Amino acid sequence: MQIQQYIKELLYLHECVTVPNFGAFLTRTVNVMIHSETGVFSPPRKEVSFNRLLKSNDGILAHYMAQKEHVSYEQALRKIEKEVVVWKQRLNTQHLTFAGIGEMRLNPEKKISFSPYGVINFDLNSFGLGDFIRKTILVPTFKKEEPQTQPLPIMENQNKEDLMFTPSKTENERSPILRYAVIGIIGIALVGISYYFGDQYLTNEKAKATEMAQNKIKSNVQKATFDLGALAEVHLDLEATPVEKTSAPLAQPFYSVIAGSFRSLVNAERKLAQLKAEGFDAAFTEVNPDGLNRVAYGRFTSKREALNLHNYIRYALQEEVWYLEEK
């Protein structure tokens, strides 16, 4: 059961966790899902699947188990092998449960069928996020008032007296002036907005043109060659002092498919030339702690590309290779 817990913890950190001689658990990223009918929003998540063909040991599980239990790598590997034997025997009679991950059982063709639980989201970027339901926004409606159909009564001067005031203009006489004033204000506002956004557009276009010109100048300078004339020949007598190689951390992790490790640099270069002649993008990896020169079929910055090449060489070409993660 402890090994199953280690697998669940590693799925948060790695896209592939391989159990030697059993299979590999893989994670696949699923983007945000919006259910239009129910209004439910689901955050990004990683779903787990199982591939029984990936049985080659990549060292991730054994190395992690050795650190957790403070044992050697070989002891951790033997514990995993014993647990795998128990799993295979249990699958013959019942289903195998991985807490928080899923369960396995044998189908009628005697092949492993994996059913993920889908309860745990293994995407660390979505930690703490859950589904939520969008509430419907209700737009208020207003009832229009019906215009009066009956004319207003006109007051009559029954005493026929002279009026001491001048009646003001009616609403119909004033409305055209107010209408023209409103139109004028809207027109001035539109002119101001157009001027502002037009000035912003010109400023952005000038910045883009300046950046393109600078990149062009930089490209021309990098491609330029200069004739400095012939330099006088200088002979120096230097005493070489051997410098011990120190392993510095890499700027980014590399994922390699190793063809072999050689103590002789000549043999390593011969193997490298052979792989390149066969069409592989072969390369040297970092020298291992024992001083061996490792030659790789390919060295990638993407783990998925390295695993694809590993599976192709392992199962299609039937060549003995192993997977290396450099950090």
Q: Could you state the order of secondary-structure elements as H and E? A: HEEEEEHHEEEEHEHEEHE
The counted number of beta strands is 13
Poorly predicted ranges: 221-228, 241-247
Q: Pairing-aware structural class of the strands and helices?
A: alpha+beta
User: Average pLDDT across residues?
Assistant: 78
> What global shape is seen?
flat
How would a textbook summarize the main sheet?
Answer: 4 strands, antiparallel
How far is the first residue's CA from the last residue's CA?
A: 29 Å
How many H/I helices? 6
Strand order, sheet with most strands: 11-12-10-13
What is the C-alpha radius of gyration, as a whole number of Å?
38 Å
Q: Which percent range describes the beta-strand content? A: 15-25%
**Helix percent band:** 25-40%
